[in-house]
Amino acid sequence: MADMDSKSLSNYQLHSNSSISQYLSDATSQISPSISVSSASFENYQTGSNCWIKMSECDEFIGPKRSKHTMVAYGNSLYVFGGDNGKQMLNDLITYDCNNNSWGRALNGSPPTPRYHHTAVVYQNSMFVFGGYTGDLNSNSNLCNKNDLYEYRFSTGNWILWNVECAPCPRAAHGAVVYDNKLWIFAGYDGNARLNDMWYIQLNTTQNMPKTWIEVEQTGEQPSTVCNFPIAVVQDSMYLFSGQSGAKTSNLLFKFDFKTLFWSKIRSNFILRGTNAPPERRSGHIMVAHDNNLYIYGGVLGNSFFHDIYSFDLETKTWDVIAMHSKSLIPSGRSFLAASVQNEFLYVFGGNGDQNTRSNELYRFKLPNQPKSTLKDDFYKLLKKEMFCDLKFTCANNQVIYAHCVIVATRSPHCRQLIKLAKEKLKPTPASLSALVSLGSSSSANSLSSLEEQRWIKSPPFCLNQDEFIEIKINEENPEALRMLLEFLYTDRIVSLEGRENEIETLKLIVDVYKLANQFMIPKLKKICENFCDSSITCANVLSLLRYVDSLNLPALKESCMKFLAKDINFNQVIMLTEFEQLQSSLMVEIIRLRQTPRKLNTNDHMNEMIIDKCTSLEQDLENFLLKEVGNEFSDILIILNENSKPLFSHKCILAARCAYFEAYFRSFMPKERKVLMTIGDTIPPRQACISLLRYIYFDDVNMPPEDALYLFSASHYFQFSNSRLHIFCKQNLEANVSKNNVFDILEAADKIKDDYMKNFALKIVRTNFAELARSNRIKKLSKELLLDIIVDLSNFFIQKPSTPTATLHSLSLPANSHHRASSTPTSPSFNSHLIAVSNSSNQSHTLHNPNALFQNILTLINDESKS
């Protein structure tokens, strides 16, 4: 309940819910229809993540359309300098106010000569512009690259040309960043050739100190000569992606370590990880860093302009394509645009589009701020820690590897049958018999339905003792291959290959994994192994791989080797190797015959991608396992909500993997009869909210009704998930979906769980839509206390000071199609004065004992104002 007048309000006794709700309905019916407040226009999607919004365009009288310019963020503004408009080079400086969504011209002093393909960075209170291409495009004269360095001071609007020593050669289309109080430049084009040199200059020098450029002695896997590329800094490293390198143009991502001056290629191993492939090679694109991720947008390859956004997670080294919000206004593909990050927003401006058109459009993209899913990491830790294991695999060499029946059965139909057969051979333990008797007893308050009871009796739950395991024996002698297969079952990826240097042994290991995947009927893993072998075959390893897969009788992988050898360029190199001479005669004959009478090989790589796409993912398998009867057979925990509700089937290892709360709970003791009473703090959530919680725990589903989101708002903290992902999604869900249609449900739930944030949010929507909601039948079902909270909230709203804009009638959101003058005309001073006078009457005890008088006065005043 609101704090205002709580002492006085405590003296007021509400006689009945119906009397107050009926009064609110009757009183609001007197409000003039012309100012009836409809649903609030909360356009939450405009500030939601993954959403493009088109901002104000830059008018021609402020600055022309352009490309090959720069844009930096300083304070709450963006500064755009230079570029070309298709007719001439530019040297104007225009600004965009991010708070007011407006464009203007900045104080420009004596700017550098007009130019494009330059660089601009911000250091402290200045912008530094280096190099670029300058001259007269119309007359095609004085065209040259520059190596000058200008400083623009935001506080004074003055440009300063730095007098430097040992400057690098003039260049354009290079990259520049700030690190360790230095300006670093890399590569570019000098007018004759692309470059890959690197230089830096100290920026925090005093006026009398010499300003000297120093060339960097780079080491490691240095990128080839390149231009028209982006670079970005994260912590102590600089990253470069793609760009123009002639025949050597690639889609590689490079990392430069500032401390060691060492370059390295970042290899994502996306095939084994089951993640997205890197973006296509391109040039003229942008790349920004935010929250330990790199974001890439735009660029061009040939005649193709890109408009999707890729992200690269620097921690997991995985690429992802950002899914757009359904209400995004996605900009068309473009190149040679400029971009900058301000707070959590990516701004992109200008650029070249199709038909070589320039743009003056500004778009804003809300960068993702949700914590990433920890589902796969949580299950990986569960596997590595061997926590709550109830399954063991015994290899041919008697080495034992432990796992969990639930997850293995979820992912492998073959293993599921083996586990079920082994389970039937086990006699029920006293614990399981006790549970069955209790669950089947008519006196049990938590008894199952007859159908569920029969299912449990037919298929007893797992109640193995701590030292008991279900055992599966396999013929595989390589335990490492089995560990990789289990790693995939738990995470949908293979990550333990990183750091291996022996290429042949790595390929053989993947072949062993392929063999197990075939045995365990895991088609997705089979295809991943096939694709990895296809992409890894070289002239140096093809014969070793061919001998190995032939000895194991794996025709699909043998076909991959033959397909490689069928190409003339590969065949001519391989037959000259000493290893070919030592090849067994049957394989040698087969290769030669392949050359003489080529057989039709399966070269449709697209089919492999389609097969993988049709395979189920970890999340899909767990969803089926939770929601269908197959998961009930392996249940070892019952979730209890109250005495009369049916229990929900669950699995100990999954709960423990995802929630530190359940891990500690099950480590301490196993609950009696395997029953766990589900509470969130002191609140027992409704059944539907509990199901939504289990959906998140099992397969990371964050889609739920707003009513469930409210109950789960604090679940992340209570159950100690790995991060606050569930909490943030619940908050965004509520803010985006609370409306006049469900606001009372949200208000009641927020009040029940004592969530002040969402309760105040709901009260705001009630207040905004008060005229309509007060006439609804739903308001009559609210408790006395909530009805009084609504009255107090309305009174608090109108009792604010006249100088506060939100204290007037017209701060309420009107219908989108309303033409009432209140949307553009402020209320009269007399109205505000009268409103405060009336609202102040709420402090008087006689008014609080008669809320009808208070509301009658307020509503009469509103009605009179609307008619004036």
From TrEMBL:
Entry GO CC: Golgi apparatus
Identify one Pfam family in the record.
Answer: Kelch_KLHDC2_KLHL20_DRC7
For this protein, the record's Gene3D superfamilies field holds: Kelch-type beta propeller, Potassium Channel Kv1.1, Chain A
Question: Which PROSITE patterns has this protein been placed in?
Answer: BTB
Q: Which domain of life is it from?
A: Eukaryota
Keyword Coiled coil on entry: no
Q: Note whether Repeat occurs among the keywords.
A: yes
Residue ranges of every copy of the BTB domain listed in the record: 389-498, 635-706
Q: Which SUPFAM superfamilies is this protein grouped with?
A: Galactose oxidase, central domain, POZ domain
* Protein's recorded name: BTB domain-containing protein
Q: Which UniProt keywords apply?
A: Kelch repeat, Repeat
